[in-house]
Prior knowledge:
Layout: E1 3-8, H1 19-37, E2 41-48, H2 53-61, H3 66-83, E3 90-93, H4 97-112, E4 116-126, E5 131-132, E6 138-141, E7 150-151, E8 168-172, E9 180-189, H5 195-204, H6 210-221, E10 227-228, E11 230-231, E12 248-249, H7 251-255, H8 258-269, H9 275-280, E13 286-292, H10 296-310, E14 319-323, E15 326-328, E16 331-332, H11 343-346, H12 352-361, E17 369-371, H13 373-403, H14 415-436, H15 440-461, H16 463-468, H17 472-492, H18 498-507, H19 514-517
Parallel strand pairs: 1-2, 1-13, 2-3, 13-14, 15-17
Antiparallel strand pairs: 4-5, 4-9, 6-7, 6-8, 9-10, 11-12, 15-16
Helix pairs in contact: 2-3, 4-8, 5-6, 6-10, 12-13, 13-15, 13-17, 14-15, 14-17, 15-17, 17-18
Bound molecules: zinc ion (ZN) (2 copies).
Amino acid sequence: xxxxxxxxxxxxxxxxxxxxxxxxxxxxxxxxxxxxxxxxxxxxxxxxxxxxxxxxxxxxxxxxxxxxxxxxxxxxxxxxxxxxxxxxxxxxxxxxxxxxxxxxxxxxxxxxxxxxxxxxxxxxxxxxxxxxxxxxxxxxxxxxxxxxxxxxxxxxxxxxxxxxxxxxxxxxxxxxxxxxxxxxxxxxxxxxxxxxxxxxxxxxxxxxxxxxxxxxxxxxxxxxxxxxxxxxxxxxxxxxxxxxxxxxxxxxxxxxxxxxxxxxxxxxxxxxxxxxxxxxxxxxxxxxxxxxxxxxxxxxxxxxxxxxxxxxxxxxxxxxxxxxxxxxxxxxxxxxxxxxxxxxxxxxxxxxxxxxxxxxxxxxxxxxxxxxxxxxxxxxxxxxxxxxxxxxxxxxxxxxxxxxxxxxxxxxxxxxxxxxxxxxxxxxxxxxxxxxxxxxxxxxxxxxxxxxxxxxxxxxxxxxxxxxxxxxxxxxxxxxxxxxxxxxxxxxxxxxxxxxxxxxxxxxxxxxxxxxxxxxxxxxxxxxxxxxxxxxxxxxxxxxxxxxx
Length: 549
Ligand SMILES: [Zn+2]
Ligand SMILES: [Zn+2]
């Protein structure tokens, strides 16, 4: 039994979460469920990243406070997670008092350990509003493409990342006046000092996917740069360094510590004082981070660097599972351009559980994957419903109709049946091996393939015909073998379709649920002849999305 910390990248909330935002949270939930199924000890965490300028600027424009706005978005997200059956052990937010204290203590320690220094830099300052203007507080003309209205952190037109001082004719977004440049002191994390240790760590991290390792080694080869720790924002965690009054910790550098603070908070919620140390400070604990590909170096270099600099013996990331982009009808999801599927619309089309299936079916693991309404409909109707749901319902209905809800005695297995039971064992092995290597998308297909083989077996043996011709023995064997597949399928689909999995489990007349029942019987003929099942009902219904897209 292994011990795991399962982490999903903290989504930055600025209203209307879309499916792309949701991918990492769902992946973490699916994976945590899989690990529990296999008997591992798991804590799964994430939370809303609510600090920083986008929310601060939006609050200013909509005449509310950043705190109220953040709280609203956070509640909205929590509501979506519940509806999509995403049950992380702790989904918290960066305004949590536990997180705030953790971040301040953490950076105080880094300062004491000599990894934090300060330096004066030039920044834009609005004399009317009497404040420094970090990233989104300033807009102007993009120096690269000449487009007006580029923000201080990025130009939406050409996509380039910007610094406020890069902008041509900058303007304060609050009052519209041109700012002045003024010196401001800022604090930095001395990442370059850890270059050698980080290099050894990346080289030793043989479990990292190839792209993450190469990407990180390239970063190291190009030379690490100190990372800014502070911002002149008001909406954030006050920086704890001597002389840093009025500054806050840069959102990126505090949200990334949420993986730790959320476990600490979980321990408090559960009245388990030792939980945090048991997971975060035990060298045998494994950890996995579900992130977008643009976040790789943050999790393979900056987070490990921070953990090393704390000298607290925290466990470093053992695995990152990064995804490529999910495209919508061939285009990149974009909130500003209104391209994509929003969770609020998704829940109107089909059960939230169906989205869990479809998103993992389309999970962009090795290349960008395209999402379209037509493809969604096909995955749900032709794969989940017609292959998986149909096979399970067929077999259970045979048990009811021909054998009075009792799993029949198969007698001596013929070659066909033996072959299918071998397929069952191999299929379970492939499934666990895919899941163990974070190939979640392949694992979904393993379950579908097994159901497809089951359907072929049943169709070719026509148990209903055999019953009609009084060949009960043949029908009994077909149904018995079919039931064994249904049992393993109920385990395989548990991470993706937890509610349906439980329904199959209960219809099979089994106690508890797939997790408490243990996955030990996966891939084997675990259901004995004579076992009673309950009357089945269809597992899924078809969706119709015509007109939605
Ligand atoms: Zn531009
Ligand atoms: Zn101003």
